[in-house]
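Can't paste images in this forum, so I'm doing it all in text. The chain is below; anyone willing to post the predicted structure tokens underneath?
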Amino acid sequence: MMIVICMTTGFITKGRGAGRKVIPIKDRHTVAEPKVTKDKSYNKVLWQDIVTKGRKREPTALTGGMNHLDDSEITTIVATMEFFDATDIWMKQTVFDLGGLPRFRVFDWLAMNVMGRNDDDRRQNEQALKVLVHAWTKADGDVKGFIRNLREDDYDVDRSWEKIQIDI
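Text version of the structure:
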């Protein structure tokens, strides 16, 4: 289904072809009800640290607002997630987020996950997220260093990532 919003006319079109519906923007709640979510308390200091370091290392002016990871680097991230028993849903979403159309910068993607993007099963995904955050902060926001940390460090032996607090 395709939804198009035209701000100049004040209408939303829903669907394609002869079955297309035109809905006034004031009635846009009829298109889709917002998903009700509980208030989550993520570690805002950790989130700010990720974003601050990331903006310095991956500025929009240099990156065009997207990452430049190759397939092997995305595979490294997903393989780490898989090793720490992340859910299939989160791993598939990661492949799309980093390698698909959005191509989020790594810090944007990681900060979204800290805020709750991977909440299909937060408890199951927590270990993988902690490892990824640890590797990112250890690399001081450097994407190549982040990938190198994931490839070279043995996070099954070095468990210093366990002290990271994602939710508060």
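Residues 44-163 form one domain. The first strand starts at residue 3 and ends at 6.
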